[in-house]
Amino acid sequence: MELTQSIYEQIAALERRGQIEEAKELARTAYEKQYQENIKESDRLTQAHKKSLDNMTGSFNVLMAVSTQSLTLYNQVLQKEKDKQEAIYAKQREEREA
């Protein structure tokens, strides 16, 4: 944590005047305030990262669904082509056997 130059100067001025307890209190209060601000910033960043991760997860799920549908359609097309070829071969066999 970092205190501002102004806070350091205020603490030093209090110490020079012999107001040691007041200087300690100012330092403690300043550190506590900075600590609380750091916690808030950390929470904000955590929420932003969570939102970003949720968005990425949602995009990934959509991509997986589209990929699955595409693969299913591709397999159906292949099966139809295979069925056509088998029908042609069966017809050719029948013609040869006849």
Q: How does this structure look, described?
A:
There is one protein chain. The chain has 98 residues and is mainly alpha-helical. It has one domain. Helix content is 92%, strand content 0%. Helix 1 (5-16) packs antiparallel against helix 2 (20-97).
Write the layout of secondary structure elements.
Blueprint: H1 5-16, H2 20-97
Helix pairs in contact: 1-2
Give a nutshell description of this structure.
The chain is 92% helix and 0% strand. It is an all-alpha fold and 98 residues long.
Task: Label this structure with key terms.
single chain; 98 residues; mainly alpha; rod-shaped
Largest sheet: none
Average pLDDT rating: 94
Counting structural domains, the number is 1
Secondary-structure element pattern, one letter each = HH
Beta-strand percent range: under 5%
Shape: rod-shaped
Structural class: mainly alpha
Helical proportion, percent range? over 70%
Q: Which consecutive residue ranges, at least 5 long each, have pLDDT under 50?
A: none
What oligomerization state is this entry in? single chain
